[in-house]
């Protein structure tokens, strides 16, 4: 089975994370059901000072396909 890893870096995006997650999940679930792809969604929290990490943790509680990588401080652009 082919696997897709969608990596999404975020910084202070508490309001946008649920929207991005929902749209990404919809596309990836369609690929899983129709094409047999496995997937994971990896959010990289780049030292957010708002509630981004808490929002991500809340989403993760109901989704085993979601992973979170948390940076203690902002590392800037890659």
From TrEMBL:
* One GO BP annotation of this record: lipopolysaccharide biosynthetic process
UniProt-listed InterPro entries: Glyco_trans_2-like, Glycosyltransferase_2, Nucleotide-diphossugar_trans
Glycosyltransferase 2-like domain sequence ranges: 5-78
Q: Which Gene3D superfamilies match?
A: Spore Coat Polysaccharide Biosynthesis Protein SpsA, Chain A (3.90.550.10)
Q: Which GO terms describe its cellular component?
A: plasma membrane
Instruction: Please provide the record's keywords in A-Z order.
Output: Cell membrane, Glycosyltransferase, Lipopolysaccharide biosynthesis, Membrane, Transferase, Transmembrane, Transmembrane helix
Q: What is this protein called?
A: Glycosyltransferase
Task: Tell me what organism the protein belongs to.
Answer: Thermodesulfobacterium geofontis
């Amino acid at each position: 089975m082919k696997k897709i890893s969608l990596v999404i870096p975020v910084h202070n995006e508490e309001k946008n994370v649920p929207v991005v997650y929902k749209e990404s999940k919809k596309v990836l679930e369609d690929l899983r059901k129709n094409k047999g792809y496995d997937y994971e969604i990896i959010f990289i929290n780049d030292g957010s000072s708002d509630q981004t990490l808490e929002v991500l943790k809340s989403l993760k509680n109901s989704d085993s396909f979601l992973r979170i990588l948390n940076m203690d401080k902002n590392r800037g652009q890659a």
